Amino acid sequence: MATAHNKANVGDIAKTVIMSGDPIRIKNIAEKYLDNAKLVNDIRGEYAYTGTYKGKEVTVMSHGMGMPSAGIYVYELYKFYGVEKIIRLGSCGAYVKDVDLLDIILVEKAYTESNFAYTLNNEHVNVASSSKNINEIVEKVAEKENINIVKGNICSTDCFDWYMTDLSKFLERLPKDMNIIAAEMESFAIFYTAKLLEKEAACILTVVDSHYKKQELSAEERQNSIDKMTILALESIL
Asked: Can you list the alpha helix ranges (DSSP code H) found in 2-66?
């Protein structure tokens, strides 16, 4: 059954999906890592490819930018396509001195000021957790592949934080007990939707800019920074 946002039929999407905001990243992952990759969706330019990695069926799909976009795609994947697990691969901006450019973050919890949960499910919730099961597997794969990861909590914002009129006020509002180390724009919606529908979700991020150190990667460097994350995700689904 296709939806208004996904033309794939039931059966075209694997039970495990690796997602990223950028459709070009998804295309590159499918071409570089998957065997027999088949394009199963291109509605609105949000590509989805299903193929195999070392014999394991997997779908890779883009979810666009921001919680509203990501929320639509993950809801439909879980609810209508029978997806059980989603691993998001994304980029983020660091907020603390101990996190450097190109560090890889395995997200434990996502905080947001958004009303996403209230609008979707009439629930005032601002913190959502990733799957402990998936995270434990990712940690084991990281050790095996000799890939350093940083575990921590992040915030999911409703706008790109570099464009905030006063970032310092936003940072002051963040709950201090969560020790938030970075920001992105989608994970809360993915984690919350997974919990709502009794599914699993995780998120692996690469640091592409740092507010603390006033550093950032170029657009091309951001595009090419996904390889280690991709290996972590693909090896974890095995």
From this structure: 23-33
**Count of domains for the chain:** 1
CA distance 102 to 225: 7
Nearest Cα neighbor of 25 from 223, 222, 237 is 223
Q: Residue 160 belongs to a domain with what CATH number? A: 3.40.50.1580
Catalytic residues: 209
pLDDT per residue as tens, the chain (238 positions): 689 999 999 999 999 999 999 999 999 999 999 999 999 999 999 999 999 999 999 999 999 999 999 999 999 999 999 999 999 999 999 999 999 999 999 999 999 999 999 999 999 999 999 999 999 999 999 999 999 999 999 999 999 999 999 999 999 999 999 999 999 999 999 999 999 999 999 999 999 988 888 877 777 776 666 788 999 999 999 9
Q: Is residue 4 part of a domain?
A: no
Which pTM does this prediction carry?
0.95
5 is a domain residue: no
